[in-house]
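Dear support,

I submitted the protein below through the web form. The confirmation email said the job was done, but the results page showed an empty box. After a refresh the structure appeared. I'm attaching both so you can tell me whether what I see now is the final result or a partial one.
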Amino acid sequence: MSKLLIMSKPDFDDIFMELAVNLAKRSHCIKKHVGAVLTKDTRIISIGYNGPPAGTHNCDVEFPENGCARDSKGSCSLALHAEQNAILYAVKNNTSVEGSTLYVTLAPCLPCARIIFSMGISKVVYLFSYAEYKGIGVDEGVEFLKKFGVSVERYQKELEVQDSLI
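What the results page shows now:
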């Protein structure tokens, strides 16, 4: 006699955020690992993680001690952000991101928020606060998006993540 195994179906939010967390593990950044998933109508249209542009080099290989050089604001001089990579890959492959939802492990910074808004992405779900990570008072990117009508939510469920994501 066989047993019937009943499995609960995960929400798409859970599936996409877990994928973003796993994509972050692909990052070659020394400072922070971030992953992003772009979806439309419960389908994945693009993925990304932070790191130097394709065809350049990997920071953890070229600069294993300290990572790449920093710009005048202390940010990586070479890295594209995870959400930038996801958007760029979609557009490069003629996929419209308008009306899509972005799942990202770190709330968008202000420059990424401007890109997200300009590309017509309608919703952002993020796991960790950019402001908390950077030690600043407010998530400027989140506030920008909300001000201009983009739906923004912080993912509330517990996920198992590596220290480099927190």
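Response: this is the final, complete result; the empty box was a page-load delay. Residues 12-24 form the longest helix (13 residues).
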